[in-house]
Amino acid sequence: MISILRVKGLRWMVMMTAMLVVGTLSGCAASRSQMTGIFDRVTEKNFGAEKVSVFFLFRHLEQQHGFDSIPKLKDYWVKDFDNLLLDALNEISNISRYSTFTELPNDVNNPNRRQECETLKGAHDYTLNIDFFEESSFKQQCLSGTISILTMTVMPMPYSWNYTITANLYGQNGRLIRSYQRKATLNNWVEALLIFAYPFHPLEGKREQIYAESLHDIFRQIETEKVLKKWGD
Fold it and tell me: Which of 16, 21, 114, 169 is most buried, judged by most C-beta within 10 A?
């Protein structure tokens, strides 16, 4: 009995050591696709328009197909999201004031936060709901992870995520005014020698690019189409 436990313990130690070595030796190089749905007109500034107030409601969701039955709410996917939003807001010229709210999974059990969200909606001329939806394949992630561990990352393996950014603009009466959507794919290759490529192609930086570009382009389209008008709903 003691021998069996020793063997199991040894196997566990070997497995943990292998995973530690893989995590230490592996490198990665990320890339992203071009964004689809890009607004293809020249930006026309809306400087003369009357100022309006906007409530930005954000949701960050993920779904690993084959594992998750429905999209799941998450916290921010990028650590500097507030800075990305602040920079993108420069695309819109006639916002007098704005408020932001990020929907979280535990809001279902938090009536105070739900009430806060509804109050903010009623206190602004417009509400812009923006969803950042990350999709991946459990089958692909599991297969790539298994092969990476078994080969000590000698064999390069891909991991990919599809991003859909959807923005729905509502008037104060709750009527949908416009919808916008952008899509992009993020790929990450894992292999030992790619450790030297990581500083030039980090996964975090590529994801941040997708977030930033989608916000800028959607706000640029809103500005050019001049949909934010006083009493325009």
Answer: 169
In a domain, 230, yes or no: no
Residue 232 placed within a domain: no
Rounded CA separation 229/233 (Å): 8
Is 13 a domain residue? yes
Q: Kind and range of the H or E element at 205?
A: helix 203-225
**What is the number of domains present in the chain?**
1
Domain extent for 21: 2-225
CA nearest neighbour of 105 among 150, 151, 59, 64:
59
Q: Which 3 state secondary structure label does DSSP give 24?
A: helix
SS3 of residue 177 by DSSP: strand
Within a domain: 233: no
> In sequence order, what DSSP letters do the residues of 88-127 get, joined into one string?
HGGG-S-EEEEEEEE--GGGGG-HHHHHHHHHHHHTSSEE
The answer to whether 62 touches 81, Cβ cutoff 8 Å, is no
The predicted-structure confidence for 94-146, as pLDDT tens digits, reads as follows 999 999 999 999 999 999 999 999 999 999 999 999 999 999 999 998 888 78
The Cα 85–Cα 88 span in angstroms is 5
Q: Are strands 157-171 and 126-137 parallel, antiparallel or unpaired?
A: antiparallel
